[in-house]
Description:
Layout: E1 3-7, E2 10-13, E3 18-25, E4 33-39, E5 46-51, E6 60-62, E7 70-75, E8 80-85, E9 94-101, E10 116-117, E11 121-126
Parallel strand pairs: 2-11
Antiparallel strand pairs: 1-3, 3-8, 4-5, 4-9, 5-6, 7-8, 9-10, 9-11
Amino acid sequence: QMQLVESGGGLIQAGGSLRLSCAASGGTFSNDALGWFRQAPGRKREFVAVIGGSWSGGATAYADSVKGRFTVSRDNAKNTAYLQMNSLKPEDTAVYYCAAAATIAFPPIQVRDYDYWGQGTQVTVSS
C-alpha cells in the first residue's frame, strides 16, 4: 500500500513558477509510473504529466496544455516526484494530485490507470 503526499502549492501571479513535490511511502516507488493530474472547480480531473518507472529510462509525457512549461521528474532515492511549473497562467488554477500506477503501459494518462492517489494541493494563479 503506497501513500502519497503532495506539497508546494500556493498562490502565485501569472508568469511565476512553483514546484510541487509528491512524497511516497510504502509500495515500490521506483517501479511505478508517477503521474500528475489537476482538477478545477466544476471540471473533470485531467492528466498533466507522467514520468515512468525505472524500467522506462525516465520516459515522460505531458498534456499539450502544459508542454514546454511544466517538467516532471523524480528522485527514487528520496521516494519523491516533482512537478516544476513555469510561466503559470490563470487557467492552471486547480487542485493538483499526484498518483502512482503499477503499469508498464506508457504513458498512463487516464484516471483509471492509477492505483494510488495523494490528497491534492491547491495551486491558484492570479492574473
